[in-house]
Amino acid sequence: MRTTVPLIIAFLVGTLLVVSFFINPERIFIGDAKDVVLQWMTIVGGFALVLGVVSIVRVNARAVKRKSEGWFFKLMTIISVFAMAIPAMLPVSKNSVGGSIFYSIFPDSWMPLLGTSSSSIYDWLFNYVDAPMMETMFAMLAFYIASAAYRAFRARSAEATLLLLTATLVMLWRVPMGEAFLRLFSENLPGYINTYVMGGFNVAVQRGIIIGAALGAASMSLRIILGIERTYMGK
Amino acid sequence: MIKLKAIRTLPVILLTITMSLILNSQAFAQNFGDSIFILPRMTVLIFLVIFSSAVLLYTKWAKAGKELFVRKIAGIDAVEDAVGRATEMGKPVLFIPGISDVDEIETIAGISILGRVARITAQYETPLLVPVRYPMVLAASQEVTEQAYIEMGKADSYDKDTVRYVAGEQFAFTATVNGMMMREQPAACIYMGGFFAESLLLAETGNAAGAIQIAGTARPEQLPFFIAACDFTLMGEELYAASSYLSHEPLLLGGLKGQDFVKIILVLIILVGTFLVTFDIGDWYLNLFNIP
Prior knowledge:
The structure holds 2 protein chains of 2 kinds. Chain A is mostly helical.
């Protein structure tokens, strides 16, 4: 039963979505199936968020309780989850039943701080805490690229040397000063790099990978729809 | 052998082109809004039929016991070695099934591979860490991991927090996983699924932690980062083949052979197209693949 029911659902939904691709949505409702299923997925995903919150609280609370290494940061994680979520979920007006009860207990001056408007606690935390931290992490990528490039571009073999030379040319071509430097050798050199290296070898290889990946994805989807592949259920 | 295969595929290609021509000519003659079927998409349907037939045929042959050769994929073979290394070192294995949601086929592929990896970690009783970014991936991964432990007779060893939700934000997820890597010092890091800008941040940190690293993604823009920072990388279709390959089940390997057969057809179609376009007589041919 635990295997059969998911297999039937996978077959029916998969087949429906494949068929809907070929059906005109203006004539038969099946043509809209993809949009409807995506809406369902958003709703199910919303409910599943509770699982995420339970998981994050359980894992971190256990570490806090045991006072294991870095427990303070785990405590901060739990506090952050609720500090972002609770003010955003509280009512912002008295018009609803929940809102009228809430503001009979708490002062009306709290109203602009709640919800997700521009003056809310949620918005302040997002703009001044969350976003800068995300940007910091993203900015660190530059240093990681430098260290990865150092390893990747070491000329240990003929292929690696070729990669190093190509990468050097492409990097020079990408910055205005480097492009000016390349033009000292030939006015057409940046154009050749663009046409043959980026538009030629690079695109050809990328398309090869994309075609292979698309076939792999289609093959896997087919195996799942037909119930041949059950590994996604742990079988 | 190749010649024989090419001759076998010829009628299929001719049939495809003929049917596409007929259907597309009808489609262009009719108004798109009047038809029940979206006729310009019929080329896709024909390919779908050919593709499905090839996969099913090879699966049937595999079921009948026919020996099918599937080339060795070093990155997938390395998965078992990596878990073995972690067991010997007494350190955990870190597995990330991508950072996409469960509606992406790459994530499904990642979760499928997780099932295989979890069987190996269950067998050797090696700790497994699976941080995820979406609650639905959490539910699916927990189910797959628990099932793997039960099937290996190690249900008691399964920890509910093996698979854990970390953060919904891309870089919050990355920061947490990077911290986890530096604290837990996993002996093996396996990244299988859809990755974006965080791919290098994760792989470089894993490298700094001294882990053996295996990555697999279908996104060509992230592949160079994984190739630079990981020991083994599964490229594109290899990611989708990994779970079948690891299962060693002939039935699943049949699907991979069917996929290879369709690849031969596609190569021939591309060659024909290149020839026709080179001699400026390929407009009608390009229209066949102009899918609205």
